[in-house]
């Protein structure tokens, strides 16, 4: 898939932008705080992913009431005009070729992206929430059913958390508890099933990339950690559901006593090991970066295998951090799809890369 054109109005620090992109490599360079990351964020947004902000209002230019994004996309041999209109205090509208879309997952059905940025080191270093976010972001783009289940699970989880928290003052709230546990087990079984399958594909893909990357000196291993009573996470949601439900029932009294939701897929983790040691605790800076990038490039391969098309790859500020050998490795590996790479002005990298070059200054291409 390719993003041929992008137009922005009042998005972040862009008053108005129109850009025609190269089908393979696009280099976006400029000083700090000029709008390079914002441009990648706009592209990611049109693929249904908001990685940087929780609220659309943060994306609207300071002082403006709404923001517009337009993308001319080629996907599955067809052309699409993707549109997103964001407003303060009003719901956004999303469209494809003039037809309204229900949600972000429908954008992902047309345009997909994989983003790698310096913050992704947290993918290895930080707690399980970062890795769940990575899994969710990937699977949401691949499986609309997963997106639905995730939304449902989060809604129920929030609500049940509130019930448990407030139950001391208002014990009658607990009447609804079982209903929420039931719903969470049902949506949770879908999450576990899809996560297990996605992780299996990561296991088939990421270690080889990591080995190439590290010159075969390091072995990466991945493992899915989920609710202990689930005997086979790869099983169908129908089989996982009663196991989750039983687990919730077994923890019912404990949940009421400590007034929080205990275990469930909201505590899932993807354990990452390098040479048999937990990467989170022991890996060096370079190993961390290599492992994080391997996971992202593996996701890109999985997207391609799944849809037959390369997702758009967004590399924010990452190549300059790698040594020459690793830079070349990445540049060789990203052939095939369309890539957007940001780097700083004085970077010798901008001369090294072949492709269309965009100089960003103060929210404009100059
Ligand atoms: P760096 O090289 O430091 O990563 P960058 O070019 O990637 O810089 P961006 O992250 O794209 O910079 O941000 C550019 C500017 O956009 C920042 O100065 C930020 O204050 C500004 N900005 C962010 N959100 C908004 C908004 N909603 N309205 C206006 N400006 C914004
Ligand atoms: Mg940036």
Question: Could you explain the architecture of this structure?
Answer:
It is a single chain. By secondary structure, this protein is of the alpha/beta class. The protein has helices at 36-46, 104-108, 122-125, 128-142, 144-166, 177-213, 237-250, 252-258, 279-282, 285-307, 324-333, 349-352; strands spanning 2-11, 14-20, 25-30, 66-75, 78-87, 90-96, 99-101, 113-116, 220-225, 269-274, 277-278, 312-316, 339-344, 356-359. Strands 2-1-4-5-6-7 form a six-stranded antiparallel beta sheet. Helix 4 (128-142) packs across helix 5 (144-166) and helix 6 (177-213) packs across helix 7. The longest helix is centred in the middle third of the chain and has 37 residues, at 177-213. It is globular. The chain binds adenosine-5'-triphosphate and magnesium ion. Residues 12-13, 30, 32-38, 58, 60-62, 317, 344 line the site of adenosine-5'-triphosphate (ATP).
């Amino acid at each position: 898939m390719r993003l041929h054109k992008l137009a922005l109005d009042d998005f972040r620090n862009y008053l108005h932008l129109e850009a025609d992109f190269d089908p393979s490599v696009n280099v976006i360079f400029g000083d700090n705080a000029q709008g390079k990351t914002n441009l990648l964020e706009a592209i990611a947004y049109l693929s249904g992913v908001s990685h940087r902000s929780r609220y659309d209002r943060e994306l609207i230019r300071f002082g403006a009431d709404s923001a517009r994004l337009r993308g001319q996309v080629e996907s599955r041999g067809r052309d699409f005009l993707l549109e997103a209109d964001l407003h303060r205090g009003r719901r956004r509208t999303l469209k494809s070729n003039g037809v309204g879309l229900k949600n972000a997952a429908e954008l992902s059905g047309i345009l997909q992206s994989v983003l790698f940025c310096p913050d992704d080191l947290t993918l290895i270093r930080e707690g399980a929430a970062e890795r769940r976010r990575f899994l969710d972001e990937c699977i949401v783009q691949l499986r609309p059913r997963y997106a639905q289940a995730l939304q449902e699970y989060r809604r129920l989880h929030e609500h049940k958390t509130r019930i448990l928290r407030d139950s001391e003052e208002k014990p009658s709230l607990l009447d609804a508890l079982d209903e929420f546990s039931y719903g969470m087990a049902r949506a949770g079984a879908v999450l576990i099933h899809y996560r297990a399958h996605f992780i299996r594909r990561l296991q088939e893909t990421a270690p080889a990339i990591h080995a190439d990357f590290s010159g075969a000196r390091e072995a990466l291993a991945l493992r899915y950690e989920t609710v202990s009573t689930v005997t086979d996470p790869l099983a169908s949601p129908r089989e996982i559901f009663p196991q989750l439900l039983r687990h919730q029932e077994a923890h019912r009294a404990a949940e009421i006593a400590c007034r929080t939701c205990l275990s469930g897929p909201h505590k899932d983790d993807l354990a990452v090991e390098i040479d048999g040691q937990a990467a989170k605790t022991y890996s060096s800076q370079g190993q961390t970066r290599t492992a994080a990038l391997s996971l992202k490039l593996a996701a890109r391969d999985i997207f391609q295998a799944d849809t037959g098309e390369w997702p758009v790859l967004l590399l924010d500020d990452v190549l300059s951090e790698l040594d020459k050998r690793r830079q070349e490795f990445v540049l060789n590996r990203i052939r095939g799809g369309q890539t957007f790479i940001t780097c700083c002005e004085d970077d010798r990298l901008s001369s090294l890369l072949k492709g269309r070059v965009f100089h960003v200054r103060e929210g404009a291409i100059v």
